[in-house]
Amino acid sequence: MHISKKLAQAHQSNKPTFSFEFFPPKTAQGVQNLYDRMDRMHDLGPAFIDITWGAGGRHSQLTCEMVNAAQSHYGLETCMHLTCTDMERTQVDDALRRAYKAGCTNILALRGDPPRDQEKWEVKEGGFRYARDLVKYIRTEYGDHFDIGVAGYPEGCDDHRDVDMLIDHLKEKVDAGATFVVTQMFYDVDIFLDWVKKCRDRGINIPIIPGIMPIHTHAAFLRRANWTKCHIPEDWYKALEPVKNDDAAVRAVGKELVAEMCRKILDAGILHLHFYTMNLAQATRMVLEDLSITPSTSGLALEKPLPWRKSLGLNRRDETVRPIFWRNRNTSYITRTADWDEFPNGRWGDSRSPAFGELDAYGIGLKGTNEANIKLWGKPKSLREVTSLFVRYLQGDLDRLPWSEGAISTEAESIKDDLLSLNKRGFLTINSQPAIDGASSTHPVHGWGPVGGWVYQKAYLELLVFPSIFKTVIERLDANKNLTYYAVNQKGELLTNTKDEGPNAVTWGIFPNREIVQPTIVETVSFLAWKDEAFRLGQDWSKCYPAGSSSRKLIETIMGECYLVNIVNNDFHQTHEIFKVFEGLEARDLDLVFEGTEASDHANGTYGTREVLNGDAPVAEVEKSIANGEERKVPFPTNGVALKS
Amino acid sequence: MHISKKLAQAHQSNKPTFSFEFFPPKTAQGVQNLYDRMDRMHDLGPAFIDITWGAGGRHSQLTCEMVNAAQSHYGLETCMHLTCTDMERTQVDDALRRAYKAGCTNILALRGDPPRDQEKWEVKEGGFRYARDLVKYIRTEYGDHFDIGVAGYPEGCDDHRDVDMLIDHLKEKVDAGATFVVTQMFYDVDIFLDWVKKCRDRGINIPIIPGIMPIHTHAAFLRRANWTKCHIPEDWYKALEPVKNDDAAVRAVGKELVAEMCRKILDAGILHLHFYTMNLAQATRMVLEDLSITPSTSGLALEKPLPWRKSLGLNRRDETVRPIFWRNRNTSYITRTADWDEFPNGRWGDSRSPAFGELDAYGIGLKGTNEANIKLWGKPKSLREVTSLFVRYLQGDLDRLPWSEGAISTEAESIKDDLLSLNKRGFLTINSQPAIDGASSTHPVHGWGPVGGWVYQKAYLELLVFPSIFKTVIERLDANKNLTYYAVNQKGELLTNTKDEGPNAVTWGIFPNREIVQPTIVETVSFLAWKDEAFRLGQDWSKCYPAGSSSRKLIETIMGECYLVNIVNNDFHQTHEIFKVFEGLEARDLDLVFEGTEASDHANGTYGTREVLNGDAPVAEVEKSIANGEERKVPFPTNGVALKS
């Protein structure tokens, strides 16, 4: 959405809004950390974020990537900065094209600073000298697609201190097609408000967004103020000077000062605040909380139009349906479906088209280096040690599992005991949701969609089941008329009690004066695409460990043997019923330790370890119901098994 | 659906099914009566019905019309008879084309009887001599589109008594492409079963449907048995002879005999019974009830896939959504949307295409002659007398109103008192439904859709509101955040508190392993189309009475003055809340009698009567919120009003 439209809406509802500015970090780890921070800062409810353009365009590729990630994966309305300095026209064209493809609709057009090694700079081949030229060019090339912001300098800029002349320049940028103004940082509200008045008098009628620099440390405060030559009111010095060596005290005092400044701005009727976060969350969050304008402090819940985070990628804004399977793998889902023409579409069920992108084409396997993952998950040598990871994850003591890119959601609270019990008995739970029989759409945990509605869910459970128990599980599933299920192993042998391939809506909402919204579904084709990914993630995990090692063999065996089973309880009044299927069942040999080749020559046969873990071989009846189950009909060898007592 | 497929499904579930045969009546009134009967007999749950072909093709147009009505309006799977006798090829082509267009997929191909005035008959230009030729032709022209039935003669036919030779003919018809057999009537089950065995031995393996003639009167029983030369078992004569002069006793005894015969057939594993109803319901229903195979006697509810009766018209079988407005005007809705390409479609909201057929193009105004309608509704002279018609309708004492083509549904029971109270206070209720917060899909009154599901409804109310009360009503509606409404008068002045034109789902169902189904909606464009029809029906009603008469003026005034208001309570947990909007409100001058020109020269001014009925003129605030409301700003004249006491 255009920023100017967002501002108009906020103005209409008389509700303060704010935005965050980030810049491309220097390292890959820094980028990942910033993504995680952006993801968390989403919950503060920014109206939009900015990604700055690397000075001289050096980080331009990264800026484009970050704009795409912010839009598509984190669902953050993003404004991409773009500068004239050191940019050829083809580079500008490329950046605009990439922004367009990312679904980005907002550009902040800047002249930019000259490269660090030059005091003056020359216009590049076909490039632009002034921001107004860039504004004109974007308008010419893209019409009204982009909302175009420009910079305002209440206290002059680097090479021009004549404020009135700069207002003339600003007027030219507006006349060239700019639709909003973001100011340079300032600390003196009177200067800012005076400058706004001058702008208005000069006929600049587009929204003006004040740029706010929260105070992180005393040194940075002085350095930035000095660099931008902005006036620091006398009382700010007085307040900060006494505590300047105590960072915490500086942040606390700084927060008070900045919040007070923001209040003055809001009182003057300017309802949007733009924060220069410097890629840090704390100082900005403190100011917002002091102002009571975050969801947790304002009493106004974060707008959550759907149960999953909306992507703002190109053509994705109207996306309304997703399979439940990628619930904990949002990035993967966005990536695998990036080439779709429409969302939702009929391609899940259309075998003629490659519905979900190939796993390898997108590099969407397990996140993190082997070392980091081993550090995170240790070196499990028994099923018990694997299940304990799942238990820790459910208890909130582990931030991610191979199948879940983020921490456990609060939604699982009501079924946590059931899930813990399952995992402790050797059923590894991959995904789940409790049943919801009409919660308010504003419910703090389960709510989504417009106010005044009711949301519903069918209980869902997805887990890994060992063959020794599989037959009993299927029998119990078949005996319960409320349950529908799909079970599939790594080889793709599928078992289901559903009769057709159409979607099963497992989350839906009823809203005033609307059609029913049904944003989460279970269905066959997408489950089979997910199955490949789910087993692949396990394989990736096993490959974190050296070939022949206990952990690799253990995890390989789990992935090679288990069925991935998903179950829906179609009676959405029942939350715990789905767990009764597993009552009294437990995986065998939970504590049997797998021994790697380093320690024993005997443990190198897959069959050996497999037999140990499974206990009984799967029975013939189950085998028959699965296509191409021939391998299993070979009795497992009973020799060659190496165990530690 | 093909009859042979229906039979296969019924066979698989081992559940007896049955069908009814009707013939085209001689008079228009007879056709209307038969339609009403077919509509009622739908509730007995026939698998399909047959419409016979007028002998010699004389009633052929009517047969085609009836096939279309049965398929489209009454949702009855229909088999059209088609004969060779007296039919040119172009007539056959025309009949098949019309059957196709009606969505009919079943044809019974017959040779037919010669015209009454000829003992032998000649093949017409390009026509067909034998049924097998007709079967072949249909297969050639339409491939597998039509399921094709042929006649079987267990005791010979008119001009051939050699049963074995007739079985040879039957085999030829089967070889030509027939897919099921319907037999001539018979009363001797042994003869029939013996004949079936012969057919099977002869290699005729398609389903054979026995034709059953229930006994209406003794004379008809003998005449038909004699005409078809079928054998009547001795005990049948013995049982019927003693009671032959008592029609009721004949039917009772005949019912026992025919039911016993049906039981023998069912016991022999032939699970479908075809009844020659002779366009009468009673004798057939008695047999079915004796066999306990109707929905009310079998304990198996009538399948009701959606809350409204599905149309089987061409392309309509997958129709899943309808506006609620035509709930009591099914025929009109089917007719007005007959030219749509798909169901549902986006045309409700597409202003470029004529979404709903023009009123006049389809002749879908008020049903019945003026005389019949006056007989039904009397000559109301005051609002009280009009409301008393609505009260009688709600109490089940009146079969139809101008806005409801059939009797009040049992669904209204839970809000009957609310509706009665409204009407007694002068609000004429046009349409309504109670809120349902998750009833079982097999609920006898509210249930629909597959078993194991839950159905929901938002409370809905549509009624006529006089301007004197309108402002208060709108104020109360605006004050209740759960209610959305549309109000429109005859001139098309629309008032609504809805913000977009998208549909509001007011009926929906949640089913195992399915998407949410939302078959009934409220939305703007269709409401405006319905508004024209609703006001037109009132006008049509007024025109049943002579110009200048009290009744015409009264009804014209009501239609000219009232707003048609629809209200949805988006909180589907609340049934009675919607009626609180009208608490303490009453139309003025309920008992004021309108006087016609015959009785008084004074009562000829529209303003006069309008003023009387409305009491206060509408206030300015309301006026402002309605576009083009200028006329109303002129104060009503206070003179020229003619009243009785």
Automatic annotation (TrEMBL), chains A, B:
<dbReference type="GO" id="GO:0005829">
    <property type="term" value="C:cytosol"/>
</dbReference>
<comment type="pathway">
    <text>Amino-acid biosynthesis; L-methionine biosynthesis via de novo pathway.</text>
</comment>
<dbReference type="InterPro" id="IPR004621">
    <property type="entry name" value="Fadh2_euk"/>
</dbReference>
<dbReference type="GO" id="GO:0035999">
    <property type="term" value="P:tetrahydrofolate interconversion"/>
</dbReference>
<keyword id="KW-0274">FAD</keyword>
<comment type="similarity">
    <text>Belongs to the methylenetetrahydrofolate reductase family.</text>
</comment>
<dbReference type="InterPro" id="IPR003171">
    <property type="entry name" value="Mehydrof_redctse-like"/>
</dbReference>
<comment type="pathway">
    <text>One-carbon metabolism; tetrahydrofolate interconversion.</text>
</comment>
<dbReference type="Pfam" id="PF21895">
    <property type="entry name" value="MTHFR_C"/>
</dbReference>
<keyword id="KW-0285">Flavoprotein</keyword>
<dbReference type="GO" id="GO:0106312">
    <property type="term" value="F:methylenetetrahydrofolate reductase (NADH) activity"/>
</dbReference>
<feature type="domain" description="MTHFR SAM-binding regulatory">
    <location>
        <begin position="304"/>
        <end position="584"/>
    </location>
</feature>
<dbReference type="GO" id="GO:0009086">
    <property type="term" value="P:methionine biosynthetic process"/>
</dbReference>
<keyword id="KW-0560">Oxidoreductase</keyword>
<keyword id="KW-0028">Amino-acid biosynthesis</keyword>
<keyword id="KW-0486">Methionine biosynthesis</keyword>
<keyword id="KW-0521">NADP</keyword>
<dbReference type="InterPro" id="IPR029041">
    <property type="entry name" value="FAD-linked_oxidoreductase-like"/>
</dbReference>
<dbReference type="GO" id="GO:0071949">
    <property type="term" value="F:FAD binding"/>
</dbReference>
<dbReference type="InterPro" id="IPR053806">
    <property type="entry name" value="MTHFR_C"/>
</dbReference>
<dbReference type="Pfam" id="PF02219">
    <property type="entry name" value="MTHFR"/>
</dbReference>
<protein>
    <recommendedName>
        <fullName>methylenetetrahydrofolate reductase (NADH)</fullName>
        <ecNumber>1.5.1.54</ecNumber>
    </recommendedName>
</protein>
<dbReference type="InterPro" id="IPR004620">
    <property type="entry name" value="MTHF_reductase_bac"/>
</dbReference>
<keyword id="KW-0520">NAD</keyword>
